[in-house]
Amino acid sequence: MDEMSFLIEIIRKTYGENAADIFSLLLEKGEVRDDELARILDLPPNETRKILHELFNADLVRYRRIKDPRLKWYTYYWRIIDVPPKIILQQKFRRILQILKNRLSFEKTNSFYICPLCKSRYTFEVASINMFKCPNDGEVLEIYENKCLIKFLERIINSIQEKLI
Question: What is the pTM of this model?
Fold first, then answer.
C-alpha cells in the first residue's frame, strides 16, 4: 500500500467514508469548489462543507476564497495541502505521541480509586474530597492499580517512537 492510499484509509477510519471520497476526489481533480464536490459525490452541500472544515482543521486540505464582485459572496476552492503524505502522517503520529506521553505522566504521578458499583475512577484528591465515597452512588471507593494501563501506554509509545525514527 502506497503512502497516499494509507492516508486515505486513515481518513476513512477517522472521518468516515464521505471524507475519504472527498479527499480522493481532490487528489484526482486538484482544486475543486465545495458545491462541485457536493454535486459530484451526491452529498448535501452543508455536509460537504462540514467535512471539508474537519479535513482543514486536521491540516489535510486547504482552500482559497474568491469574492464574486457581482454577487458579493465568496466562492471556496479546496485542494489537498502541498506537504507529502509521509510528513502529514509523521505530524499526526507526533501529536498522538505527545497526548499519550501526557496521559502516561498523569497515570504515573497520580493515585486512583474506583467505585466497585459504577466503575467511575477518581484521583486521590477527588476521592479524599468525597471522603472516599463515590459521588454518584455513595459506595466506598477501592484502590485502583493502574500498572497494566501504564505498561500498555508505554508499549504504544515505544511502538510509535520506533516507527517515527
Answer: 0.68
